[in-house]
Here is the input.
Amino acid sequence: MLRNRLICGYCGSPMSAETGTARNGELKRYYKCYGKKRNNGCKKSQIRKELLEQLVVDTTLEVINENTISEIADFILKNHEEKKTENAELNILLKEKSDLQSQIDNVVKAITAGIITLSTKSKLEELEKTLSETNTAIEVLQSKEKIKLTKEDVVKYLNVAIRKEPYQMLRTLLKQVVLYDDKIEIHFNYIKSFNPDDNGQGFLFTTKQKTIKYVILNFPNLQTIRMLIKVYF
Ligand SMILES: [Zn+2]
Here is the structure.
């Protein structure tokens, strides 16, 4: 269920499900940190597959349901608008564009004044090439911003997703799950590939705490762990 979505909070490696043998010989499935498996020094405990998946499914349905979807959509829209107005990357590019333009103007003035050397000419070509690349990058960012996100789209997306079977629901909704031993960060999608290269952390929507009992491999007793759950959209 969490394949390609689950990341170890300690070392950033992916975590994937594996079969292990418990003390009593029973086969159990665990999610294990790939970095730890490769001996990168990570200390992440393994966690029972069923237990983690249940935790994620339960949390998803507690957070996203008929009573909360409208509120979630308002939250997303509000943050989306704020993010647009403070798009730092675009502002940097616009500043660069204006700097390049004034450098080009100066070189052109020099040429007009009769100061023409080979290096002036190659400098001008170089500046014009950079300006053209900067303009392309600006256009890409601006066209992304033009995609209009509406509340109706978000409500519809979430409504359809929570009516699916648990496996399909998680595959649709989960962007990423970051797991620590006592903390889990769940990042949800809110619209179909709205911004595929947006790997941003999203916005913290809610924080919960749950006490779960979990078995760590080679540690047969149930450990009672207080998990801090942070939910992002
Ligand atoms: Zn790790």
User: Anything to note?
Assistant: The pocket of zinc ion is lined by residues 8, 10-11, 13, 33, 35-36, 42, 44 (CB under 6 Å). The first helix runs from residue 34 to 37.
